[in-house]
Write a structure and sequence with these properties.
Largest sheet: 7 strands, mixed
CATH topology: Metallo-beta-lactamase, Chain A
Shape: globular
Number of domains: 1
Oligomer: single chain
Number of strands: 14
Order of helices and strands: EEEHEHHEHEEEEEHEHEHEE
Radius of gyration: 17 Å
Helix content: 10-25%
CATH class: Alpha Beta
CATH superfamily: Ribonuclease Z/Hydroxyacylglutathione hydrolase-like
Distance between the termini: 7 Å
Length: 258
Amino acid sequence: MKEIRIVILGSGTCVPSLARSACSALIIFDDVRFLLDIGPGTMQRLLEAGFSVFDVTHVGISHLHPDHTGELVSFLFANKYPDGSLRQKPLTLIGGTGVSSFYRQLSGIYGEWIDGAGKLKLLEMSSTEPAETRFSSFVLRTAPVRHRPESIAFRIDGPGGKSVVYSGDTDYSESLISLAASADILICEASHPDEHKVDGHLSPSLAGKIATKANVRQLILTHFYPSCEKADMIGQCRRTYDGPISLGRDLLTFKLDV
């Protein structure tokens, strides 16, 4: 039976933690290995999940904060080992407006060390309006969200019409509700408990409100700051969402039968 597999590689933030790497997720189906965000600790978690850097086919960058991009340089450099021959397939780097400039600036420092073994492609999506691009085995849709000017959320519509949405960092955004409409899984940030809500981020009840308005079938909360560890995150989310809820943790895996 075919399936889409989702691995939460990192459920944390910029705050160093032995238990939680920076926020990242891996979507797996057919020959696609779509990595969403790539902050510190991502490559180790990728190995622990049974994958190498050479398996990754797409890297999606939700925004340019270091906890979401900090391991990109190391990841691209690793693709050069030992002579670039281990990367058989092209690697597509996807982000919002400015991601091409971001990569060019990194290249100005690191040069050929981060050329993706000559197999790197860049795809820049709009950070001001919804965008869509079609690949051979899935459709990628993105939408701007309220965090940084370049911030986007990702939706992957894969085999069997199954869909996975990744919010990235965001405050409450109607655009995320539209993007996540009737999605099978929404991986959504809930950075702080309701009582510690901060601008630019969601709390559990706001994440639940988005999931309810979008009619999402399953909600995975992630991107937890230390204040979340002693809070009743599921209880707070239950105030606004009555579907299945999971609290993200590193290497937690989900499957969608296709």
